[in-house]
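User: Could you check the structure of this?
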Amino acid sequence: MSDSSTKKNFIRFLPALAAFALVCFIRHFKFTMSTYNTTLLALNYDYGFIPRGFVGTLFQFANETLGIVEWNYLGVFNFSGLFTVMFYVLLFVFYKLCLDRCPEESKRNLKHLLVFLSIFAFPMYTTSVNYGCLDLYLNIVLVLSLILLVLGKAEWLILPLGIIGMCINHDFIFTHAMLIGVLLIYKWMNRQGKTQIKYTVIFAVFLISCITLFSHFESYNYENPKEIASEIKVSAKALSETGKSYGKTYLEEEILGKDLSLSEERLEQNEDNVQDLPVFFVLFSPYLIMLFYLFLRMFTDTTNTYTKRLSYLLLLFGSVCILPMLFTDVYYGRYMFQLVLYYIASFIVLISLGENNVSNHLNYIKTDIKKLTPLTFVWFLYPFLLTPFRAVAISASIHDFAEVIFTELTFFIQP
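Assistant: Sure, the predicted structure tokens are below.
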């Protein structure tokens, strides 16, 4: 293929993805925002260096200092919309950077991965339950960090980004920091000399800052919690769609310190988690098999150095950092999205950094897939049936399927 033809295809690819993003937005956007997410914007550092207070402080700054948003539901809605657009823009900056840096022989594989990631990412923060949620801001931090890692310049900026991520939501250490940390270790293991020292320092400071902030936020005690909860309740109501509702669960559990683990709502959510998770793994088993097969080939490839093979193993098991969240929280839809993002983004970054070896093994697996089914587009269409991912429920389709299995079918097999 000539250079002009390749450039023409490249020009068409990103606009086509942009059109796809627009379709996803129109298809799933409900022009509404959950009360839980609006309540989180009522938190700010007027109450001290509190957990999850960063985004609310930004909103307060935009309201009181800049005067660009009002302290009401429309203001919260528009503020969230601004950062939703920013997420899309940064994704495309990341995509273009990866395409520019990727070796020509690996670009086809890279495009396939970008499309696959987009199927999950584009609709994720357009639904009513996820529009304006804190994970949106955490993924903005994550994408910015990935851009720096692919660019290979100003990577020390990952340190303040990590601090911002922890201030947005200290669960960042389990859900998003794992990908950044693993890629930093990967770069450290495959570099030498001063460059290796650089990544050692960045990773060490990144890890220490995340752990320090996690310790602070996890053990944070509110002074006069009842008074603070009462004030936040008033602010949260003003930001809600009805002007009368607020995230009662958050205030009771996080600020007043009540144990809601045995509440009826939490027990129902835990039951949904237990039902949805195995169904998710079954429905995604073709991709999981491909994933482990790819890592197995990469790890057993004796043409790679022992260090590189070990770094592949680290990438495979780096996602176990999310396990504490699966035991302590109920937002399985968001966590499964982060797992999908973790693995797809890992391969995107590796290929963009010139890892032709990864691309070669991916070609081998794609050849095997074509032997199973010549209709390779099916592998891209199938996820449309299972997305968008949600919050507690992994997705509407997965949750409905799980309900059928665990309620209606089990009724017929009762002894």
